[in-house]
Amino acid sequence: MPLQINLLAEQQLEEEMRRKDPVKRGYWAAALVAVLALIWVFSLQMTLWVAKSTTARAKIELESREKKASQVRTNLITTGNVERKLQSLNELAVNRVLWAPVLDALQFCMVDNIQVLNLRVNQKYTVDPGVRANVRAGIKEVSASSREQIVLLINAKCYAAEDQIMLFKRNIQNHANFKSVFTNDNSVRMTPPSLRQQDPADPSRSFVTFSLECYYPEKVR
């Protein structure tokens, strides 16, 4: 049998050893790890980009809704103010003082020797604008209001004794139209009568002048 000699055996052995070299395998493993790390970093960047994009859209949508909510709150406050004003106007229309019944009632309160010179009504309204709510500053809303003060002034002459003036005063306080309004003696106040003087139209008669101040209860609306 012929003898076969492989002249390339040494080169083949060296090539095989190079293929099995652990350092070379380490290079490949490191390269693979680096590629995987790059892929992982790229994935994280993509996830971060998507999250930022989603956050930006959510922020824009939130700002839009906050503007709408702010407008709704402003509209609610405006609507509430208008409703309160309408309610106040309705209450004023219902509870306002009607002067025709007052004048009609006064004629039944008259006594002999009392002559009414004039009537005057003082109506005063004090308006409180209220306070608008401010949640951030911790300020609560205070509704606007108005305080109504009405005084009926009666200027008159008395040709008799001063007890007639007191009778006139009692008639006003006890009349059905005024009894529920002037509930105490302080509601109808009499100013001190003037000095007695002679009547220019009839020198045989003399009189004193006086005033009655009729205070209606204050009303806050």
Provide a concise account of the structure shown.
This protein has 221 residues and is an alpha+beta fold. Helix content is 49%, strand content 23%.
Keywords summarizing the entry:
single chain; alpha+beta; six-stranded antiparallel sheet
Q: Can you give a write-up of this model?
A:
This protein is α+β, with helices and mostly antiparallel strands and 221 residues long. It has helices at residues 9-19, 22-95, 99-106, 163-174, 176-179; strands at 114-128, 145-158, 188-190, 197-199, 202-215, 219-220. The protein has two domains: 1-96; 99-220, 2-Layer Sandwich (Threonyl-tRNA Synthetase, Chain A, domain 2), CATH 3.30.980. Helices cover 49% and strands 23% of the residues. Strands 1, 2, 3, 4, 5 and 6 form a six-stranded antiparallel sheet that branches. The chain is rod-shaped.
